[in-house]
Amino acid sequence: MAKGKVITIAQQKGGSGKTTLAVNLGVMLARKGATVAFLDTDPQGSLGRWFMTRHEAGRAEGMEFSTASAWGVGYEVGKLRDMADFVIIDTPPKADSDLRPALRVADLVVVPVATSHVDLWATDGVLDLARREGREVLVVLNRARPGTRLGAEIAQAAQALEAHLAETQVANRVAYAETLGQGFGGIEGARSPAIRIELDALLTEVEAQLAQAD
Ligand SMILES: Nc1ncnc2c1ncn2[C@@H]1O[C@H](COP(=O)(O)OP(=O)(O)O)[C@@H](O)[C@H]1O
Ligand SMILES: [Mg+2]
Hints:
Radius of gyration: 16 Å
Oligomer: single chain
Bound molecules: adenosine-5'-diphosphate, magnesium ion
Structural class: alpha/beta
Number of domains: 1
């Protein structure tokens, strides 16, 4: 079996949507028939809570979950890549040397930026580290507020980041927060097609970036 692709979600700022993107990318990939291994390196363990909730609901087929300390990432990913088509690594809100092992193993680093200046300011650290590791990066605007001045300002400023900016923005939707707590992805709880459209578009961009990293 070919080795699985590794996607690391990283951003120094807490609450930017790392776990949300980890979960939603994983669910979208699994819906396409891929096997997905989640690796939680954040001691807060939100991804683990999400996975266990999902597992208890009998919805974790084709998915695996494990945890690793910062320095155990390489070893754990080595095993997971043999088992799953995709390994998705969630990380703590840090951009220091502890993050390096999770960046080093990544085929693609996804960096969520919530719609605020503070989030944007926090982004340089992780971009810098990813660059030093020679990793492919995709910045994703999360909790986007289309039609607001703040939304437009952040989108504009994000263009100036030295990294690939996803065209797709993930909007601020209660459904993301709700489904996260239920062990689901946004698409599994959505009543509106908008959520499906944005997650499909995001996945297409992620897949394109992964193909480039090949
Ligand atoms: N696009 C979104 N729309 C609405 N709520 C969101 C969105 N993204 C994240 N959240 C909420 O914001 C909080 C922080 O998100 P989370 O993914 O846990 O961030 P991180 O893992 O970076 O700390 C959670 O309560 C989550 O449900
Ligand atoms: Mg998190």
